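Subgroup meeting minutes
Present: P.N., E.W., G.H.
Scribe: E.W.

1. P.N. recapped why we're keeping a running log of single-chain structure predictions: easier to compare across weeks, and new members can see raw inputs and outputs side by side.
2. G.H. added today's entry (384 aa).
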Amino acid sequence: MMWTTTVLLLLFSLLVASAIQGNGGNLSQPETDEELSDTPAEGRKPFGEVKGQDTCSVPCDIAAKLLREEKHSICGQLQQSLLAFGRSTRKLMRDVMEEQHRALDVLSGQVSELMARVQTLSSEVQRSNAEMFSVEPVQSHGRDCSDIKNNLMSAVPKIPSGIYIVHPEDTDSSFEVFCEMDYMEGGWTVMQRRTDGLSDFKRPWADYVDGFGHLAGEHWLGLTKVFHIVNQKDTRFQLHIALVSLDDVASYASYDDFRLDDETQFFRIHLGRYAGSAGDAFRGYDQEQNQDTAPFSAPDVDNDGCNPSCTLGNSTVESCSVQHNHTGWWFNRCGLANLNASPGEAEQSRGRRTHILWDTWRRSGVPRTIRSVTMKIRRIATNS
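Output recorded in log:
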């Protein structure tokens, strides 16, 4: 090792220097037999006759021999020390590794024990779930929120708003919905709510078909569920859109005879007569803006009528869904309504319609910035 060689060289240099100082610096004299001989060479004086120079008390060859022996002794001692150090280091490493192996064995045993406990708990949970579901299925509260309200009116003086389970006629499954029982005499099934922008409405077709979000907050109920509710036998449904602007002004748009076609028709929307204070943005101001009877579009399923493109202001648009912040809606050459965009709190992004749009609700000729919207449906009386 480099540091060992350096130590030996330093020690040897110190010993040589010490010997030189102890012998009057005479180690520099030649060591040949001729020069160390007691008989002076020709023309050369013996050591004792050199003027002003002391004679060596110990012959130089003996001093050099002693130094060599001392160097060899020190080197041997250093080698023995290095060997002892190596042995102690290897022993220390073995002890550390053995300690680590013991610690790993302990941890492995603890992990195995925890895994066994997790498996036991999982088995118990599965058994409990099986026992719970084997007792009886969860019963629905009614066919829709209007039906629930009618069924509970005689038994409950005040029906609370909240999450209920509905089972529309001629369907195979029940599902949860949020029922508003306080707004305009109650019985409303909420199909969409946009309030704070915390839920991501940039969704593909499958999500809009199945539904997403949190029923008590922002959510989209799902096109399939809405289709099953509004297409029950001998029923008519009203669509009510409640809007609140950024400056806390409320308005609404209402349509009777609201229904959807099935998925083979891309859930095409059908609207009856309009009533309200926000204007009929669904139909717009001319036929090109009319979104009534339009099929539903999503970022990955384009049914917006822009074939291959359409003009929106000064822009050429190939996909209204992409233009409207990658959200899904009943677009027809984009149109004047999209309630699935983000609640407005700032200016629109350049070239994009990122905020909730209901273009016919204006102030001083400018569309209002909409902070929240709720779409809800309720049964209305039939002629039969």
